[in-house]
Amino acid sequence: MTLNESIHYHKNKLYVDSVSVTEIVQSVGTPVYIYSLRRALNNLERIKTAFTALDTHIHYSAKANANLTILRTLIEDGVGVDAVSGGEIFRALKAGVAPQNIVFAGVGKSESEIQFALEKGVGWFNVENVRELDFINYYAEDMGLSGIKIALRLNPDVTANTHPYIATGHGGAKFGLTATVIANVLKQQSQWINLDFRGLHIHIGSQLGDTLATQQAIQKALDLLAPYPNMKTLNIGGGMPAQYDSQAQLPSFEMFAHDIMPMLRDYTVLLEPGRSIIADAGILVGQVLYTKNQAAQHIAITDASMTELIRPALYQAKHEIVPVAENHSKTQVTQVVGPVCETADVLGRDIPLATLNEGDLVVALTAGAYGAVMSSNYNARPKPAEVVVAANGESWHVARRRETWEDLVAKEI
What we know:
- It is a single chain.
- By secondary structure, this protein is an alpha/beta fold.
- It has helices at 21-28, 37-50, 68-76, 86-94, 111-120, 130-142, 179-187, 212-225, 253-260, 275-278, 311-315, 405-409, and strands spanning 7-10, 13-16, 19-20, 32-36, 55-61, 80-83, 102-104, 124-127, 148-153, 195-201, 233-235, 268-271, 282-294, 297-302, 321-323, 331-337, 346-354, 361-364, 385-389, 396-400.
- The chain has two domains: 7-36 and 279-409, Lyase, Ornithine Decarboxylase, Chain A, domain 1, CATH 2.40.37.10; 105-273, Alanine racemase (TIM Barrel, Alpha-Beta Barrel).
- Helix content is 26%, strand content 25%.
- Helix 5 (111-120) links the parallel strand 7 (102-104) and strand 8.
- The longest helix has 14 residues, at 37-50.
- The chain is globular.
């Protein structure tokens, strides 16, 4: 099982640090997300330590989990924020980040988002379209700004060892600019008089199974930068994997750093980890509503669903499913499903579990990333509460309250 120091069993009961999951559920109900701030901070510290030999600046990728308490905690520990929308910039500023420590990425920035970012003094723009340079330059001129730091995002045309839905560096992806386009832009960079071209950005995908494609992408970026010795910044994005499957062989933070650091010693390096910080610090807890045997299958229907954790339905992602009350009796293969009216609403297929009964609590592990941020109100389901266990491991609080039915219609006219 993908348990860890923070998500663990004690006397056959599941705990988040020193807090009983059952205690939280009895107070706030299900479904509920629970996050360990201690685990997130420990993951961040491991990444810092792994890359300590380089001039490294870490920007947490808010798209993984943009809960304000999580953002605030990581920002207070010294990281910046990688934002891919005006809304994420807004949330990051609300959480207290200095605007110069925000990197604004994204393949489709609107003009209004660009204006907002410039008005707030965002530190970096990761640019993925030539026309985007025109917009940034124009609005900077209009606001009397200059020296806007730019990193051009390279699409290195390499295939990452990951699921195709979360691979971003192959030639057919919508992301980035080709090497030819970037070379032409760098030759003509003086035409954007308010922009300061500082380096390149690469991000070839999430949940990378090895470092080979990353090394290939870095080398292509270095080749492009070679004629410009004053451009000494390389943003290598994120991609370091989280452990969803306890049997999977994945590169550790330390291995990832070891393999790529020799290529980067002459550069200032920006990192944008998200999933690797928060994924295994979070769980989604649901309660069994019904069980039934059908078509030679044992099915447990829970109140947690694809509206809270869409990853299994979206790209066949696997999350280990465990009971809150550990039971060492004989297991049976179980289909753990939700109540949403979609066949794809399956949290876990063919999960070996001891017999579940109505009212039992089950947990999807490694649910801290791309859970709440991708949740929806489909089937008019209110979004769950989000709970954080403090960095001391002893106390907890509701960081986002559970929505009500009234919330579902509050914005309609």
